[in-house]
Every structure is written in structure tokens, then in C-alpha cells.
């Protein structure tokens, strides 16, 4: 008890509630699911929670093509979406930053997509890409670009394309806002100096603006890669993994296995393989962030 | 900026046109759904399409509340809205309080295991919502938290606390430690110094952390859809699923519900948006 009264205890006491909540809501469930991933746990047979089967779930997953397709698709999805969002967000931030008049209004408009929840974005784009009443097909018809409706969400390739479009609409502004914040924090003197020295706009961007923005870019990437699970909501609504599993991501496959097929043990084994993926992405971005910070030197 | 390079007129126009197109892309998809919420169903199905609503109507809103005579079955939207509000507000307030304490500890104290603790908080966020929903479902059903507001509040707290700690840590670091030390020399206790000096200065950071936490809880779907069953705890995003119960989606009703989900988010974001940009910079990059 003496320890809790001492001044050294203060930070621990301050952190205690946070630690308790995280332990109870994240760590304990993870331990439970870690256990179930070694059992044949089936939702309709509760006693199977104690039926230990060793590595059977993991062994089956290794030979399961559907799972690896979903896994690969998730990696490709994250890679394409994150990079495109980053490029477009950077472009948007630079554009808005060039405008001196009405910048605040533009910034507010820029935040518009951020207010839509992912599930709403899913419904919204399911509606926009609908082949009979959707805005996209209607507009293409009106412009005489097509003569029969394009089945955006029914064709496998087009469905993947539509999901990436929806994801980009939702998240590009998050990148733009983060990078905008970086641009606002940027000191003006180096740019002025470079211009006096005769650098053109491209050189200024390449050698001064971009290096300064790199930490912001990596932070945005880290935050977004942590949030990719949000894509679950959209995919679930827009295609629910269809047509014929062509847009299945790890998360939709997992929920289907766990809840629809009741194979909780198998689903949790998938979960563990996929958490490794999230951790890998986080570590990769975090490393890049640290490097970019070092490069910034005294600015921090 | 004084020494801005003088642009040629065509460059200025190119810039404006590009910006206009970009803003249209950002606004139109959302605005289209909002517009649909005020159209009669006939207009949605019309061929050739009707671009600008001709017949503005509130029937879609009345319809989802079950206030139209011909469409007798409404949805318990007001229950969903109330649940969402209670769950989001409670979890946000608690997450901010708990997160602020944690952030303050990280910003102001040196202690054993600090780095490891900080990293653990970060890593707890790498667990995606869906991956957590399966084990939480098992646990919550064992202790009877399925389909309760408390069950969801607890989950959203856990999701928001790490992020709040991260943001507030950055904000408290921004405030020079001398300020609270000076207050303590003037006779304040550490506690008083915190409330009178540091808390007001960190307010904008807390505001932006708050809006993030609220929006996360307000918009969350994956966990809510598994942990809720009835009107006792179903939230708005889960309620939106009611529109796909049939083979065809009721687009006008869905759009009306969408508007109801957006409004609180919109109002809150406009109120707090001034702090938003500041919150993102300081919390995120300066560590």
C-alpha cells in the first residue's frame, strides 16, 4: 500500500483505468479467441469450446485457397487504396493550399466525406453504382457513352473497382486534411530562400516541401492502415464478398465463417493470421516514420 | 506570403477548374443521397432520370417513423437514435477522461516501462474491429453483456482510449512544463495547477480527440452488428441494415435514414472543425 501513496506511483495510477479497460476489452477476448483457434469451437455446439484440436485449424487454412485469395486481395486492396489515397490527398492538399481566397470554406467542404460512416458510404455507393437507378449509369447514358447498363457490382473486376472508388472517396479527404495540417505548419523561409536561389516550383516541391511532409505522410499511412478494417463495413454492404467470392476480404470471410457457418474456431485462426498482417503494416509504417523524423532533424 | 511567384492567367484558371472538379467529386456522391431522401420514390425509378428533384417531400422521413397511413410498418428509428446517442456520448466522455489521465502521465512523468506501455496501447489498435467481434461475442454472451448499451459503451471506450492517449500526450507536450511548475510555486497543488493552467491550454486538443472518439462510436458498425440484437441496444448504423431485409433496397427510406445519421456528425464536426486541423498535427507527429 505504501507504494500507491508515493510520488512514483502517480503515473501508474493515472494510467490504471486505461490499462484495466484495454486488458478487459482487448486482451482477455484475444486470449479467449487464441484458445478457440486451437479448438473445433462451433457456435451451435457450445461444449466444443473445450475440444482441443491443436493446430488443425491452422493446417486446414494453409491449404485453403479461398482464404489465401481473400488474404492476397486484402493486401492488394490496402496497397492500392492507401497509395492512391495518399497521392490524391497530397494533390488536393497542395491545390487547396495554393488558394488564398476562401481557403477555410474549401477546407470545410474537403471534410465532407469524413462525416459519412463507412457503412453509409457502402450504401451510398451501392446506390450510385446500381445498374438500373444508379447515378453513374444514368450519367453515362445521358452522355451517350454506353447503350446498355454497366453491371458495376455484379462483375467481379468492376465490383473490386467500385469498392476501391468508394474507399477512396471516403478516405482521400482524411489524407488531405492531415497533409494540409502539415503544409500549414511548414516554415516559409526555406521556400523563399530556394526561390531566390533560382529553384523552380518542381525543385522546391521535391527538395523542400516533400521531405518536410514525409512524417505527415507516414503518420497518415499508419493511421489509415490501422483503420482498413473499416473497409469491412463497405464491402459487406456493397457486395457482401460477392459476386461468387470475388470481392471477399479477410474480414468478410472471417465473419461468414464465424457467424454464418458457426465455425468460430476456424474464424479465429483466420483472425490470428490477419492480425499478423496488421502488425506488419504498422511496424513498416512506424519504421518509415522514425526514419523521416530523423531526416527532419531539428524541426521536431 | 509576399514573394509568391506571379501566375499567368491560364495557370490560375487551370487551378480553379481543377479545384472545382475535385470539390464536385467530394460533394456530389454524398449530396446525391441527401437529395434522394427528399424525393418521392417515383423520381428515383424514373426513366429518363430526373436529376434535380421536382417534388420535394418529407414522406420518406415520415415513412421510416411509420407515420404514413399507407406504409404501416415503420422502424424504431427513435430508439436507434436514442441508443446511438447514449452509447456514443457516454463512451466519448469516459474515453476522454481516462485518455486524458493517460496522456498526461505519458507527457509529464518518467517511469519504468513507459515505452513498452505506449507501444502496447498503439498495438491494441492494430486489432481490427471484426477480429475482435468474434471473441467479444463469446465473452459478452457468457457474462450477459450481449444486447446491452453498457456492453457497447465498454467496447467503444477501449477502441477510443489508445487514440485519445496518443493525441492528448502530444497536446500536453506542447504546453511548457514551467507553466504548471510556476503555478505550484505560487501555492497551487499539482491537481489545481492541472485544472487551472494545463487543462484550459489543452482544451482544443481534447475537443478534437473528443470529436474523433464520438464519430468512431457513432459510425461503428462491425462490432455493433454482432453485439446487438434488439431495440434495447441497436444503433443507427445497424438500423440501416433493416432496409436490406428484402431483396430490393428501399433507396428513399435508406437515404432518409442516412440523413438522420449524418446530421449529428455534421453539426459536431462544424462546431469543432476549427480544432480539428490543429489536433491532427500536434497529436500525431510530435511525439
Molecular structure report:
The complex is a heterodimer of chains A (300) and B (287). Chain A has a domain of 205 residues: MetI-like fold, CATH 1.10.3720. Helix content of chain A is 71%, strand content 0%. Chain A has 13 helices and no strands. The longest helix of chain A has 34 residues. Chain A is flat. The model of chain A has no long low-confidence stretch (mean pLDDT 83). Classes of the chains: A mainly alpha (300), B mainly alpha (287). At the A-B interface, helix 2, helix 4, helix 5, helix 6 and helix 7 of A face helix 1, helix 4, helix 5, helix 6 and helix 7 of B.
Summarize the structure.
Chain A has 300 residues and is mainly α. Chain A is built from 13 helices and no strands. The longest helix of chain A is centred in the first third of the chain and has 34 residues, at 65-98.
How are the SSEs placed, and which strands pair?
The complex is a heterodimer of chains A (300) and B (287).
Chain A: H1 2-5, H2 10-36, H3 56-62, H4 65-98, H5 103-110, H6 118-128, H7 135-142, H8 156-184, H9 189-196, H10 201-226, H11 231-238, H12 250-260, H13 264-296
Helix pairs in contact in A: 2-13, 4-8, 6-8, 6-11, 8-10, 8-11, 9-10, 10-13, 12-13
Chain B: H1 9-36, H2 41-45, H3 59-64, H4 77-108, H5 114-124, H6 129-143, H7 149-174, H8 177-185, H9 190-219, H10 222-227, H11 236-240, H12 251-285
Domain ABC transmembrane type-1 (chain A): 71-285
Main location (chain A): membrane
Subcellular location (chain A): Cell membrane
Amino acid at each position: 500500500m505504501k507504494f500507491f501513496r508515493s510520488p512514483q506511483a502517480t503515473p501508474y495510477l493515472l494510467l490504471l483505468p486505461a490499462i484495466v479497460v484495454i486488458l478487459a476489452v482487448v486482451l482477455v477476448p484475444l486470449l479467449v479467441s487464441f484458445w478457440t483457434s486451437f479448438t473445433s469451437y462451433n457456435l451451435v455446439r457450445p461444449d466444443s469450446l473445450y475440444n482441443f484440436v491443436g493446430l488443425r485449424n491452422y493446417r486446414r487454412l494453409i491449404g485453403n485457397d479461398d482464404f489465401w485469395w481473400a488474404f492476397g486481395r486484402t493486401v492488394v486492396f490496402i496497397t492500392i487504396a492507401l497509395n492512391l489515397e495518399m497521392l490524391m490527398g497530397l494533390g488536393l492538399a497542395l491545390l487547396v493550399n495554393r488558394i488564398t481566397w476562401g481557403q477555410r470554406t474549401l477546407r470545410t467542404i474537403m471534410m465532407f466525406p469524413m462525416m459519412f460512416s463507412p457503412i453509409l458510404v457502402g450504401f451510398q455507393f451501392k446506390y450510385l453504382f446500381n445498374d438500373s437507378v444508379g447515378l453513374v449509369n444514368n450519367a453515362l447514358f445521358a452522355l451517350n457513352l454506353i447503350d446498355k447498363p454497366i453491371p458495376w457490382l455484379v462483375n467481379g473486376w468492376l465490383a473490386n473497382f467500385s469498392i476501391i472508388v468508394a474507399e477512396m472517396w471516403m478516405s482521400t479527404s482524411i489524407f488531405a486534411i492531415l497533409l494540409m495540417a502539415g503544409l500549414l505548419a511548414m516554415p516559409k523561409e526555406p521556400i523563399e530562400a530556394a526561390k531566390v536561389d533560382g529553384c523552380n516550383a518542381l525543385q522546391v516541391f521535391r527538395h523542400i516541401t516533400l521531405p518536410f511532409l514525409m512524417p505527415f505522410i507516414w503518420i497518415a499511412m499508419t493511421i489509415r492502415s490501422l483503420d482498413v478494417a473499416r473497409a469491412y463495413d463497405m464491402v459487406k454492404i456493397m457486395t457482401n464478398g460477392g459476386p461468387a467470392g470475388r470481392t471477399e476480404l479477410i474480414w468478410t470471410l472471417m465473419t461468414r465463417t464465424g457467424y454464418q457457418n458457426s465455425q468460430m474456431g476456424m474464424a479465429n485462426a483466420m483472425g490470428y493470421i490477419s492480425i499478423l498482417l496488421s502488425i506488419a503494416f504498422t511496424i513498416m509504417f512506424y519504421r518509415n516514420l522514425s526514419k523521416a523524423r530523423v531526416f527532419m532533424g531539428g524541426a521536431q | 506570403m509576399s514573394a509568391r511567384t506571379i501566375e499567368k492567367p491560364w495557370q490560375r484558371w487551370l487551378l480553379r477548374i481543377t479545384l472545382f472538379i475535385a470539390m464536385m467529386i467530394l460533394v456530389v456522391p454524398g449530396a446525391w443521397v441527401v437529395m434522394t431522401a427528399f424525393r418521392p420514390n417515383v423520381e428515383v425509378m424514373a426513366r429518363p432520370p430526373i436529376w434535380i428533384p421536382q417534388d420535394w417531400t418529407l414522406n420518406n422521413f415520415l415513412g421510416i417513423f411509420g407515420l404514413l397511413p399507407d406504409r404501416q410498418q415503420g422502424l424504431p428509428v427513435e430508439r436507434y437514435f436514442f441508443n446511438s446517442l447514449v452509447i456514443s456520448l457516454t463512451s466519448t466522455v469516459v474515453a476522454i477522461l481516462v485518455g486524458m489521465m493517460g496522456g498526461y502521465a505519458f507527457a509529464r512523468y518518467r517511469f519504468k516501462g513507459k515505452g513498452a506501455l505506449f507501444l502496447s496501447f498503439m498495438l491494441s489498435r492494430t486489432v481490427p474491429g471484426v477480429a475482435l467481434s468474434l471473441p467479444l461475442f463469446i465473452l459478452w454472451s457468457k457474462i450477459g453483456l450481449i444486447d446491452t448499451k453498457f456492453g457497447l459503451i465498454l467496447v467503444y471506450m477501449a477502441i477510443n482510449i489508445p487514440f485519445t492517449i496518443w493525441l492528448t500526450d502530444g497536446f500536453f507536450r506542447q504546453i511548457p512544463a514551467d507553466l504548471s511548475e510556476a503555478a505550484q510555486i505560487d501555492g497551487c497543488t499539482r491537481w489545481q495547477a492541472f485544472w487551472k493552467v494545463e487543462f484550459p491550454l489543452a482544451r482544443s486538443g481534447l475537443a478534437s480527440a473528443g470529436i474523433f472518439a464520438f464519430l468512431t462510436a457513432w459510425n461503428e458498425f462491425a462490432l455493433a452488428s454482432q453485439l446487438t440484437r434488439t431495440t434495447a441496444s441497436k444503433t443507427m448504423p445497424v438500423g440501416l441494415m433493416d432496409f436490406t431485409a428484402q431483396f430490393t433496397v428501399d433507396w428513399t427510406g435508406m437515404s432518409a435514414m442516412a440523413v438522420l445519421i449524418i446530421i449529428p456528425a455534421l453539426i459536431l464536426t462544424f462546431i469543432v472543425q476549427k480544432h480539428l486541423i490543429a489536433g491532427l498535427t500536434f497529436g500525431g507527429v510530435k511525439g
